[in-house]
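Chapter review. Work through the record for Glutamate mutase before attempting the end-of-chapter questions.
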Amino acid sequence: MSLALCADVGSTYTKVVVVDLAGGEVVAAADRPTTAGTDVLHGLDAAAAATGVTVPADRWYVCSSAGGGLRLAVVGYEALVTAQAGHRVGLSAGARVVHVSAGPLDSLAELRAARPDVVLLVGGTDGGDAAVLTHNARRLARARWRIPVVLAGNADARDELTAVLADAGVPVTATGNVLPRIGVLEPSPARAAIRDVFLSHVIGGKRLSKGRRFPSLVRAATPDAVLTGVETLADHLGGDLLVVDVGGATTDVYSVLTPDGRSDDVAGTLWRSRTVEGDLGMRWTAPDVIAAATAERLPVDDGLEAAAAKRAGAPGFVPDSDAERALDRRIAALAATVAVRRHARDPAGRIARDLRDVRLLVGSGGVLRHAAPGEAKEVLDAVLTDYAGGWPVPRAAHPVVDGSYVLAAAGLLAADHPNAARALLDRHLRGA
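Structure tokens for Glutamate mutase:
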């Protein structure tokens, strides 16, 4: 039997699944607390050992969001066009976008304060105005900026500005323009470049582990791996797909939609997209879930505010009774509902993504994986029956739970073992 070990080193838990590459079946799984306070390899090795299966090191596939994951700043030309396009690309690359600015950079104070791991420098369509992109690149060069920069703007200025940054000692990676023409968004080159910078500069730089073993194992930021798994599932499904991942600190929403050719968005439409809600989580940000639900006029049960405060005060809390588990699920239902509303709408309340044709709704996150099937379905039903949310709900979506945590595993395997990735998703999600 040919096996692969797929692991997600998360901010709280490290999850491991061992996959039979021939049949796409999970043969063992385990999780252990992430040991970011000492060395993340301790938790990873403990989770791997707990599976009871030995897998050679060359078949370990690891993704990570430990240490806050990938923090990205976007510096663009115009707020509604290239900066917005860069923001969308950053999310699709698995980053937490911590800063977005548009126009000429004068002071770098706000950019520094955001503490990015990578700066995505964009601006101008190919052959268009390069003045702002040039100004911003030269500003970073004069400051002797030391945080890696991905240059993904006007192609006509690429070589010159790459040289300007490199000559000043700025770590720079040049790639294709995220917005080569108005209304045309091309995320793939920048997404790949951000992934490479994350692996080569960020993972080792976070001091999550001593030595080179951990950086050598990590192949992607966790959200990037999950999005690749989502894309693989959507391609195999042949239809629209929605994924809601309710975590301890954030709720991430992924969608893959069929292009309809009708978009007039000048920043381009990302048909395969991810949004991150940093105020919607089960532990650290649980009180913010209650505040957001109240603002959205969703019903908040008695006692839920106190329960959320309790969880934020003790992020390691594990429910020890049916009542506490029910409170967890209610918080999760609110987080999922608000997160999908935000994913479907734009800040002005208009429909940003048409989710009516979604065929499969996948729920992920520990609160769903550890719930009984019927209980987890109640959380997803809150999304599918959200008729007052200002967005058209899916008309015929089948809800399933990623109980075996296969989306990240499939994303990690997709490049080297595409058949195993598809079979894994088929067995554990599509056929669920």
